[in-house]
Each structure stands twice: as C-alpha cells, then as structure tokens.
Amino acid sequence: MDVAPLDPVRERAILDATLELLSEMGYDRMSVDQIAKRARASKATIYRRWAGKPELVVDVICNRFDMDTPRPRDTGSLRGDLAELVRELCGTAERKHTLIMGLSSTLVSNQELARALRAHMPSRDLSGVEALLERAGGRGEPARSADTARLAAVAEALVWHRLIFVGPPLDDAFVAEAADDVLLPLVRAWAEAPSGRS
Amino acid sequence: MDVAPLDPVRERAILDATLELLSEMGYDRMSVDQIAKRARASKATIYRRWAGKPELVVDVICNRFDMDTPRPRDTGSLRGDLAELVRELCGTAERKHTLIMGLSSTLVSNQELARALRAHMPSRDLSGVEALLERAGGRGEPARSADTARLAAVAEALVWHRLIFVGPPLDDAFVAEAADDVLLPLVRAWAEAPSGRS
Prior knowledge:
71% helix; Homeodomain-like_sf (chains A, B); DNA-binding (chains A, B)
C-alpha cells in the first residue's frame, strides 16, 4: 500500500505530476488516473488528500508556487513595505504567468474548476500582508489590519493587469507607481473612513 | 486592384479574418498571407493599412471590440459614474476574455506582438473616462482630469483580476465594491495630493 497521504515527498510527487500533465495536455484532457500513474501513486492515495481533479489543480496553482503567501519584509515604513509587497507579487506573477494564463480559458468553460478556485480564495494565507498593516499601525501610520484582503486584491490586480496588457519587465518604476499612487493613498483612505463607503 | 485601404467594409473583412484565424490557429501559426486569402484581399492592401501581423492583431484586440472606448454615462454623481465605468469594463472583459487570455501566453513569448501592444497603450481613447472626471470637477466634486490614465488602469485591473481569479459573474456587488472601496477614494486622494507622492 501507499504511504500516508500527507507524506511530503509523496504529496510533492503528485503535485509535480499534476503540473507536468497540465502543461503537456491541458486541464480538460488530463485525468486523475494519469496523474496517479505519472506520480507512481494509487488513486486512493490521491483521493485521501484531494476531493478531485479541480482541488488538485487549485492546490498546484495556489500553494505549490507560494502564490498565497506574500511576506514583505519590514523596511521601516508603510511606503517601503507596500513597495516590497508589489515586488513580491511581481516575482510570483512572472513565475506563474504561463500556468495561470493557460488555465484561464479553462476557468471560463469549466465551472467545477472555477468553483474550486473560488472556494479557495477566502482561505488564502494573507498573514504577511496583515503583518505589514499591523507594523504600520504600530508605527502610528494610518493603516488597519482589517483591510488586508482588499489591499492584497488591489496589489495583485495591478501586477497582473500590467503583466497581461503591458508585459514584462515589471520594473522599479512600476513598483514605485503602484505603491505611491495607488496602494498608499488607499490604505490611508481606508483607515480614515473604515467602511470605504461615502 | 483592391479598393482603397481605409474602405470600412474591406477593413472589417480583414479584421474579421484576422480574428477568425487567431481563434482557429493562434498567433504564431497565422500568417498575413492566410489573412489576405481569408479576407479576399491582397497583401498590399493589408500592408497599406497595417505595418504587419502584430499591428493587425493589436487593432483586433483594442479597436474591433471597443475595448478602448469606455464611455460611462452621466449618472449625476462621481460615485455613480465610477460604477458605470466599472460596469462597462466588465462587459468588455466578459466579451473579450477568451481572446485576451488566448493571446496572453503569446505576448510573453512573442516580443514583437508585446511591443506593438505596448506602443498602442498610450494612444488609447480614454476620452470617456476624462469626461467623467471633468463632469465631477464641474459639480465641485474633488476630481482631476489629469488622473484619467491611472483611473482607467486601476478600474481595468480590478475587473480583469476578478474575472481571472474569481471568475464570472461580475455582479452588482463587485461593481459597488470597486467603485466605493477603491476608485472613489483614489480619485479623491489624487485630487488632494496631485502628484500622488507623499
């Protein structure tokens, strides 16, 4: 029998196989059978850990590449930390661009994969972004940790928009613009009018 | 001989052919020869109007589908107009999602197409967004027409991010959130500190 489903080596082999097959044949043509064969695992092992193909692919997208865990370092100022956040998201986006774009048309036509990704979004690990806002609050800068999710969403939106419509490189000028012109004014506005509604 | 290159019927036939071939075979495999044959036009006609394949495709992406010309109507308030802007961008994004996503991986690997799209971005028709900011200024709301380009970029970024990572539908709740929590505070912040730098 296979080893326990959470054995990290086995889990990694299964996620690697999923990514390889995804790149080779696309989401629709790939089956759990093929993933099991490629990873030298049993289907039972896979199903003990993941509900099915959509959940496996969401795991590959979101966790396998640290997409979910931006951890901007403490630069000593909110402005500097926001620039670090943008820089980290740029790195992730540049690494995962092809994978996400390849899946994106699948997301539109495949409702089960879209649902699995949607279900995952609220549970993303944004503790690094929350810590950024808490550090700023601790320094007396106007910033509220309650704004973690929307800060992460806007920052990620800017990075992906730039990558898709303007293309790489995501350079220092872009990072500065995103931090100074968008994220910093927003964090301040949210702190001043918590609901965001006027 | 062919009719003059700017004859709208002929131009439309060429753009239609480009879009069809793009969907059928992808950017890399498609040639200007094939576009000419499909559109029953000569290559000379095509080259009188467009510098080459990249420029043709950029025209298809940006102009053929009104991507560039959001024209939010006057709702009587900045908040309402911003919601209209988001709603229009949602419509465009939902219509063009498959096309853009299909091209996106090409953009990464194909530098000539990326350059053509980049060259086009600054010349996009954003007069509808500018009019929105001017109307707000005219009503005495804090808003500056100088912020047209960055307002359009942030609004578009929010819409595409949502579509790619969360998926359709882009509903009223999303429109309200984008307008109230992001665009309205940003337009105000920019009007108060024009440079955006702190």
